[in-house]
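job 3f2a | input accepted
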Amino acid sequence: MNYLRQAIASLTVFGTASVRELRSLARPGARMVDEFECVISVLLAIVFAHSLGAQNVGWAAFSGYMVMRSHVSESLTRGILRIIGTSAGAGTALVLAPLVIGKPFLLSLSLVSVGGITLYFALVGKRSYAWLFTGLTFCMVLIDGMKHPSESVLPFAQSRLIEILAGTLACILVSAISTFTIRRRLPRQSKETPAQTAIRHSMIWHRGAAKHALQAAIALGLIPWIWVWTGITSLSQSSITIMAVMMIPVTSLAASVLNPITSRLVLRFVGCSVGGLIATLILLSSHHSPVLMTLGVCIGVLVGRHIENSNSSISYIGTQFVLAFLVVLVPDTYTDAALEPGIERLAGILFGVVILEPVLLASHYLFRDNPSRNGDNDMKQPSSNE
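job 3f2a | predicted structure (386 res):
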């Protein structure tokens, strides 16, 4: 009931804040430039993904959205880390797949081990983005292979890499053109996020991060058994929710992690639900017209990025809104634009909430710690003079 109340409250805040933010949508400035950069990057990523034969074009579009930053150097760094992480995760999955596919215990152990380790270093490591995508890709490839034990996981792994390459290349091209044209006239605002600050100051060992990564690892390890019991086909998308939601600044781990993670789960659920619903309505009302669907993509990305850039309590919802919106609305082929694949992927993303929340609750009530034990003793923060 508490989760439901939070979801309703978040939905109310989202509706109110969205109306307020949309009033500033047409206001010129750096914020508007960033939003149109994302729109162009997403469209170009879709073109590249179709040209390269990607299986899940919506994920390429989302890569084109997520890599975009205010300067081409930042976009390039983020894109390279995304590619490195995806390549490492896919390669590791290809090596282990013949040994663990078809064996739920070994598959679960692999997800727990690699997923937990990569998330831990994503929390405390200097190259957190690469670590995150190593774990994400590894889990996605193996879990997808779980559904087809007699087939090779190579095609899916190749498609994941193609999707990342298409989105990253599109983003860097758009970012480079914008950086050396329009953005040269704008003041550069390179603002370090709390997560980046915490990582830059973190130590290799962090007790709170280890416990946090273990919780995610347990949730990932449940996926093969859920597959055996239920046969749900979209569980590879659930691993994305588990890894992404658990990726929080290490400073948030000083006290109980239940509230911030539950809040992120609620915001992800609300954002994805609203984005998926609106994308579904657009897809049905457009009668699969490529022109209308493309126009819908532009509007959705523009609005979602505008909300994400609001620096308000609903900014995280903006990211999740775009994720679901693109996954549902962007078809793998415009000649046969079907609703079912996107809905299936969205259901998998939302099902990750169902898997993760019970693990968090059980961990919180079984191993409740004194907050003072998880504070400065776990991570020594250097002073500003060091």
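job 3f2a | The mean pLDDT is 83.
job 3f2a | closed
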